[in-house]
Automatic annotation (TrEMBL):
It comes from the Eukaryota. It comes from Myotis brandtii (Brandt's bat). Residues 51-217 form the Sulfotransferase domain. 3'-phosphoadenylyl sulfate binds at R66, S74, K191, G192, R193, T194, H195. InterPro entries: NST/OST, P-loop_NTPase, Sulfotransferase_dom. Pfam families: Sulfotransfer_1. GO terms for molecular function: [heparan sulfate]-glucosamine 3-sulfotransferase activity. Gene3D superfamilies: P-loop containing nucleotide triphosphate hydrolases. SUPFAM superfamilies: P-loop containing nucleoside triphosphate hydrolases (SSF52540). Belongs to the sulfotransferase 1 family. Disulfide bonds join C174-C186. Its EC number is 2.8.2.-. Keywords: Disulfide bond, Glycoprotein, Transferase. This is Sulfotransferase.
């Protein structure tokens, strides 16, 4: 059994409030239950590793990662859907387009430098307490990736292949039956947005930029995510 704690508008470990207050926001956990909290931005938040470790050194951490170039374009697509007047992806990517200097202060680019973020976590947690889930495999083999998650959490492998079907129109796997319902459940409208076409030369330059950071990340995690061909 597991309970999922939803922190609402405050991402717990980013908030500058006392731990006693944070703990009270989490649901009580009984024996046999696992309490989970999901906030994607923790991975790139400087204070998060120390704050989470101060609350519990035994916390298990799960990070979903995908090709940082596609991640940047997806991030941009999400912002564009809310603010259609932003500059083009190509112009935001560079500090200086003619020299090819990448703007690493742009969050869409910065977040994908996974090796740098991981360094901060490894000062507070052993690698054995971290699981890196492949965003690509979550689509191509959801049961396989969720098998790894269940093993990591010490759960029986209850979710398997038979729980999923692939929805070609959506381009994503869907659950054959949602929890507590007999109906299928697919990801919402905001997942699988069409990404804009990006100048292939800009994509090439970004691939070149991320390659050394990806290699370092594969080395640190002991897992080749296959983003560099
Ligand atoms: N379960 C699962 N499997 C594989 N990929 C998934 C999943 N859930 C979300 N996504 C993709 O992650 C991208 C960002 O998703 P979100 O909208 O959830 O991001 S956020 O949490 O709101 O920041 C977005 O990517 P793109 O659609 O490529 O832009 C989502 O489609």
């Amino acid at each position: 059994m597991s309970s999922l704690c939803k922190p609402g508008p405050v991402a717990l470990f980013q908030a500058h409030v006392p731990f006693s207050f944070l703990r009270d926001l989490m649901p009580r956990t009984l024996d046999g239950q696992i309490t989970m909290e999901k906030t994607p931005s923790y991975f790139v938040t400087r204070e998060a590793p120390a704050r989470i470790s101060a609350m519990s050194k035994d916390t298990k951490l799960i990070v979903v990662v995908r090709d940082p170039v596609t991640r940047a374009i997806s991030d941009y697509t999400q912002t564009l859907s809310k603010r259609p007047d932003i500059p083009t992806f190509e112009s935001l990517t560079f500090k200086n387009r003619s020299t090819g200097l990448i703007d690493t202060s742009w969050s869409a680019i910065q977040i994908g430098i996974y090796a740098k973020h991981l360094e901060h976590w490894l000062r507070h947690f052993p690698l054995s307490q971290m699981l890196f889930v492949s965003g690509e495999r979550l689509i191509s083999d959801p049961a396989g990736e969720l098998g790894r998650v269940q093993d990591f959490l010490g759960l029986k492998r209850i979710i398997t292949d038979k729980h999923f079907y692939f929805n070609k129109t959506k381009g994503f796997p869907c659950l054959k039956k949602a929890e507590g319902s007999s109906k299928p459940h697919c990801l919402g409208k905001t997942k699988g947005r069409t990404h804009p076409d990006i100048d292939p030369e800009v994509v090439r330059r970004l691939r070149e930029f991320y390659r050394p950071f990806n290699r370092k990340f594969y080395q640190m995690t002991g897992h080749d995510f296959g983003w560099d061909g």
